[in-house]
Amino acid sequence: MIAKIGYDVRMNGMTRIWKSPPPTDPAHNLQDRILEARGITSRSQFEAFLNPTLMDLDDPNELQGTTEAASVLAEMLQNEKKVLIFGDYDADGITASTVLYHIISAATGREGPPIYIPDRIDEGYGIRPEAIEKFAKMGIDLVISVDCGVTAVEAAQRAQELGVTLIITDHHKPRDDGAFPKCAAIVHPGLEGEPKTPFAGVGVAYQLAWAFARVWSESQSVNERLKQVLLDMVPLVAIGTIADMVPLVGGNRIFARWGLQLMPSTTNAGLRALMDELDTPDKKLSSAHISFGIAPLINAVGRLSHAATAVDLLTHLEGDLAVGAAKDLGTLNRKRQTIQREIVASALEQIETQELEKHSIIIVQDDSWARGVVGVAAGKCIETHYRPTILLSGDGDELVGSARSISGFSIFDALSACKEHIEKFGGHDMAAGLTIKRESFNDFVEAMRKYARKHITAEQLMPTTKPDVLADLHEITHTAAVEIEKIGPFGIGNPTPVLQVMDAKVQDVHSMGRENAHLALKIGKERIRCIWWGHGDLVKKIANGTRINLVGKIKTNEFRGHRSAEIDIIDLDLTS
Ligand SMILES: [Mn+2]
Predict the structure, then answer these.
(1) In the prediction, which pLDDT does 2 show?
(2) What spacing in Å lies between the alpha carbon of 145 and ligand 1's midpoint?
(3) 573 CA to centre of ligand 1 in angstroms
(4) Ligand 1 mean position to 364 CA, how many Å?
(5) Alpha-carbon span 141 to 83, nearest angstrom
(6) Rounded distance, CA 430 to CA 94, Å?
(7) CATH number 3.20.20.100 given to 354-461
(8) What is the pLDDT of residue 10?
(9) How far apart are CA 369 and CA 339, in angstroms?
(10) Which whole number is the average pLDDT over 204-219?
């Protein structure tokens, strides 16, 4: 794979550039050194970071728009007005809708408001004026959007004309022409400079739910009943936050940490059913249980069918109905995996036959690809070619697709720069969705390639690893692994710590797993077990007694009551 890239960039490892850390004070233990490398240097910062409490969450009324939105919502409910929640079809939008549903239901003592989730294929992302017309006909007085709406200028206009009150809660980028929807309130963390916490849609919805609970309780301290609901919702906030890949810092870290902690004891029948369907363990949940478990199940339904099933599951299904719906989501997710594998294989084939990897950005199109799955498939293609990738599906004279990027290159900025060839687009630096006219395809590709040539350096196209800390073999212990786990939950903004180990003597080499696919080493006199997934073929290249450098992630292992630390190898350097 590296040979193919063909740029002259120095590598330390077999598959990556190593950006090694400076030496640190060996008197401090590994956990301290990792935290120090991440800018957490004082004792009090250590304590606050390792043991955050829900009391440390951002005050909801500090978030732009919450105070107005909460009082409008409370007033409308008091006057028995009809409310509707307008969500989005991904895990973030679905959990955000669920949070508002439950707080409103608890406040009014009735079933929560209807939740409208647009159809991914027929309607696409965001609020359209036609949807508002439909709600007006249904007699809806107040629409609250979650995880979308900040660009819905036309829909807001229509709402105003039809006398429908609109509250927008969102975290996506606003329009670059500076136009905002005119409505009762916009709750958004990113409109007044850098936010304290870059909340996901669900975090924004939660802040509104909390501010609303204060208004409803007529007190800064929320009444017991609503407080319990807010506590029950924390696992759902963790799911949306981790699924949406917002940085796990500030309030997001608190939501993720406490959500994972509280999840095994959830009282939400739907979430319970999902966890049972996945056989999620009853303790020590990590963010991986969400990103590779629960979130894909919730997302699959929006990708392949209609997200309403997931909304029903998390809002009101119980007993056998919940179990059945959770099973359906499991089945859809397996189907999604099959479709995704097919799309990735077909995209990689196109890339190879058309030699698309010679460009700094990869854009591929095929009408047969399922529109809801191209985004995840684009992410998978990056694992092979390490270039920003756009996959487009097609329907009539429109091509609809998803873009995924590599670190350091904003795909949103790239699309903005080429917007004359795009019908509509939206998203973030690392991921975006877009629609173009079929006839604009070639111009679009040309413009994007030109932009990418100018803005991506050769080095950016090399996979990089940035170890947090240099570690001595004697430091790699079970105790250290447990302490390092406490730095989690890991994800965007708080990555799993990476150690660099220099000049370790290989004591044992073998391959393992089906078709000997994986490499297993023991290193140092401590005989620390290291695994490199998918690199079993190296067994022929590494002799016993060789000295190696490696980067990897430490983890705990327990086998027949014996506890030890293991390393998952990220890269090896055999040249020393
Ligand atoms: Mn979102």
Answers:
(1) 36
(2) 12
(3) 39
(4) 25
(5) 6
(6) 21
(7) no
(8) 58
(9) 8
(10) 98
CATH 3.90.1640.30 domain position(s) in the chain = 58-331
Q: Please report which residue ranges of 140-263 form alpha helices under DSSP H.
A: 153-162, 201-217, 224-232, 234-243, 250-262
Ligand 1 centroid – CA 235 distance (Å): 16
Nearest to 145 by CA among 170, 173, 181: 170
Peptide bond into 489 cis (omega under 30): yes
Distance CA 398, CA 425 (A): 13
Amino acid (one-letter) located at 450: K
Residue range(s) occupied by CATH 2.40.50.140 in the chain? 11-19+468-574
The secondary structure of residue 533, as a DSSP letter, is T
Query: Could you say which architecture CATH assigns to the domain 11-19+468-574?
Result: Beta Barrel (2.40)
How much distance in Å is there from the Cα of 393 to the middle of ligand 1? 22
> For 471, phi and psi rounded to 5 degrees?
-125, 140
Residue 575 Cα, ligand 1 centroid: separation in angstroms? 44
Distance 91 CA to ligand 1 centre (A): 8
User: What residues have a C-beta under 5 A from ligand 1, the ion?
Assistant: 92, 147, 201, 244
First to last CA, the chain: 22
Q: For 522-542, what is the mean pLDDT?
A: 95
- Residue 436's pLDDT band, with cuts at 50, 70 and 90, is very high
Distance 168 CA to ligand 1 centre (A): 13
User: For residue 326, which amino acid is it?
Assistant: A
In angstroms, what is the span from residue 129 Cα to ligand 1's centroid?
A: 21
Distance 199 CA to ligand 1 centre (A): 9
Per-residue confidence (pLDDT) for residue 5, from 0 to 100: 36
Q: Where in the chain is the domain with CATH 3.10.310.30?
A: 354-461
Q: Is residue 80 within 8 Å of residue 109, measured between CB atoms?
A: no
pLDDT in tens, 395-423: 899 999 999 999 889 999 999 999 999 99
Q: How far apart are the CA of 115 and the centre of ligand 1, in A?
A: 16
What are the pLDDT digits (tens) for 102-150?
A: 999 999 999 999 999 999 888 888 999 999 999 999 999 999 999 999 9
Å from CA of 348 to ligand 1 middle: 28
CB-hemisphere CA count at 13 Å for 363? Answer: 20
CA of 87 to the centre of ligand 1 (A): 10
Question: CATH second-level architecture of 58-331?
Answer: Alpha-Beta Complex (3.90)
The Å distance, Cα 17 to ligand 1 centre, comes to 32
CA of 430 to the centre of ligand 1 (A): 13
Q: What is the pTM of this model?
A: 0.91
H helix or E strand, kind and range, residue 509: strand 499-512
| Contact (CB, 8 A) for 568 and 513 | no
Q: Measuring CA to CA, which residue among 557, 556, 551, 552 is closest to residue 486?
A: 556
Compute the distance from residue 92 Cα to the ligand 1 centre, in Å.
Answer: 5
Q: What is the pLDDT of residue 12?
A: 82
DSSP one-letter code for 114: P
Residue 291 alpha carbon to ligand 1 centre in Å: 14
CA of 258 to the centre of ligand 1 (A): 20
Tell me the CA–centroid distance for residue 289 and ligand 1, in Å.
19
Instruction: Give the pLDDT mean for 284-306.
Output: 93
